[in-house]
Amino acid sequence: MTEIAFHFNATDKNHYVCRLLRKVWRMQQRVIVCVPDERLKELDAQLWTFEPTGFLPHCHRNDEPELLANSAIILTSDLSAVETLPHHQILVNLCDQVQNGYETFERVIEIVTQDEQDKLCSRQRWKHYSDRGYPIVKYDLAQSKAKSNE
Questions:
Q1: Which helix (H) or strand (E) is 123 found in, with range?
Q2: Domain ranges in the chain?
Q3: pTM of the prediction?
Q4: Is 3:106 a contact under the CB 8 Å cutoff?
Q5: Can you identify the CATH homologous superfamily of domain 3-115+132-143?
Q6: What is the pLDDT along the chain (150 residues), one digit of tens a residue?
């Protein structure tokens, strides 16, 4: 069964996602990032400039199949035809709604900021997963940050 994790209280969604993707990439895991169309270019640019001396290698869903097969991080705004993706290890969902085909992934990570609209949408996604019997793991990033500052 797919593991669902909600990461709450991110102060900056894109910055947090970059940190998360760096960790996933260093662990040699593979991830699909579903991001709204209007934020795709912004996240793409941040992955190139996130670290002053490097970047997080990634590609887009519409790139060549060989590139997709060899990329650990794939950005997309559309998860239709999910079965055509080269891997189904981790899905990071940055969209407001649950993504079709999420159940084909080993793990789904939902990122939630402190914005009220984002929280409202996340509650709907939480309810969707919960109603279908998925166990949900909750990570409060505000508590994690407070502990690291002690």
A1: helix 116-131
A2: 3-115+132-143
A3: 0.93
A4: yes
A5: DNA polymerase III subunit chi (3.40.50.10110)
A6: 999 999 999 999 999 999 999 999 999 999 999 999 999 999 999 999 988 887 899 999 999 999 999 999 999 999 988 999 999 999 999 999 999 999 999 999 999 999 999 999 999 999 999 999 999 999 999 987 655 544
